[in-house]
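Hi support team,

I've been running sequence recovery on a batch of backbones for a student project. Most finish fine, but this one hangs at about 90% for roughly twenty minutes before it completes. I'm not sure whether the input is malformed or the queue is just slow. I've pasted the structure tokens below so you can try to reproduce it. Let me know if you need the job ID as well.

Thanks,
M.K.
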């Protein structure tokens, strides 16, 4: 159905192209997985899309691709904000996640009237790359109908997913199904269970203790912070063998009470650039390692090591 909708919009743009003579008609901008921008866990990326006629030029920006490398194996939320509603209160915004072979791996991705959001949930494998496509079509929005054009800024953020279960109890079994993804399980029972755990307390305790020990003495070494290009900060450090990943923060203040950049990553080098980082300004950067374990419900949790003893100071070009 989604391909048919996109095909309909493309046909509409082609018709407009034929009958437009006053100005230049712009085709879709080149945007594919080959040119996808990277996005990390807990990072927000924004893109502004234009539709319709602006000063005799016609725009039809259908969407944007981002690449995401999973920092651990688990479920993640891919949430889209900034979209506008149609007259019936719904939205044409979409967010889709595919693997390297183009296979769709997400659940949801369209406007959810119950939650009033546009969000996909996908199970991702540690170290693998996934492609996130955000899309939006403004037709039938108040803005487009009144002015003949629309400008929409969409923001994408990726966060850890916590299962929200719908519980069905029968005389022979209890079924647990996550309301936002495909995760489910069942247990034979003759009683109503208030909650369901998938792992024993001893197993959780053992895994958590192992994660704590892995990062207890993990120290970030050889941290290097430079600004080699305009509005960009390059950060690198020495890899820690027992760490599952790293948390990187950038702040205007030494005390890091408020950060302008905060991500979890598997990499040991990052090139940081976002709208909160300005030219000719001083910033502070710190890094710490983390290890993961699963709680009683199978959700991925993190144990963190200490932040590097002294945050690095850098002036952005």
């Amino acid at each position: 159905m989604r391909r048919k909708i996109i095909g309909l919009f493309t046909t509409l743009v082609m018709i407009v192209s034929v009958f437009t003579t006053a100005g230049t008609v712009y085709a879709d901008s080149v945007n594919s997985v080959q040119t996808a921008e990277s996005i990390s866990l807990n990072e927000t990326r924004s893109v502004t899309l234009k539709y319709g006629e602006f000063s005799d030029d016609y725009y039809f920006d259908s969407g944007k691709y981002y690449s995401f490398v999973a920092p651990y194996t688990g479920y993640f939320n891919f949430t889209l904000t900034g979209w506008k509603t149609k007259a019936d209160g719904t939205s044409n915004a979409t967010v889709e996640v595919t693997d390297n072979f183009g296979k769709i791996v997400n659940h949801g991705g369209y406007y959810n009237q119950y939650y009033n959001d546009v969000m996909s949930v996908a199970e991702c494998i540690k170290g693998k790359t996934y492609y996130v496509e955000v899309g939006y079509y403004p037709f039938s929005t108040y803005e487009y109908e009144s002015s003949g054009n629309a400008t929409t800024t969409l923001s994408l953020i990726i966060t850890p997913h916590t299962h929200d279960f719908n519980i069905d109890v029968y005389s022979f079994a209890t079924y647990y199904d996550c309301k936002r993804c495909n995760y489910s399980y069942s247990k034979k029972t003759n009683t109503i269970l208030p909650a369901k755990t998938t792992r024993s307390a001893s197993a959780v305790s053992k895994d958590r203790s192992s994660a704590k020990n892995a990062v207890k003495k993990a120290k970030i070494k050889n941290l290097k912070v430079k600004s080699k290009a305009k509005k960009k900060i390059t950060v690198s450090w020495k890899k820690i063998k027992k760490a599952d990943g790293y948390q990187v923060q950038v702040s205007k203040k030494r005390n890091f009470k408020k950060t302008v950049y905060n991500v979890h990553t598997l990499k040991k080098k990052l090139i940081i650039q976002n709208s909160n980082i300005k030219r000719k300004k001083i910033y502070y950067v710190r890094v710490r390692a983390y290890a993961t374990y699963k709680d009683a419900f199978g959700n991925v949790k993190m144990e963190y090591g200490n932040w590097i003893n002294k945050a690095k100071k850098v002036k952005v070009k």
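--
Follow-up from support: It reproduced on our side and the slowdown came from queue contention, not your input. Helices lie at 2-19, 142-147, 201-216. No action needed from you.
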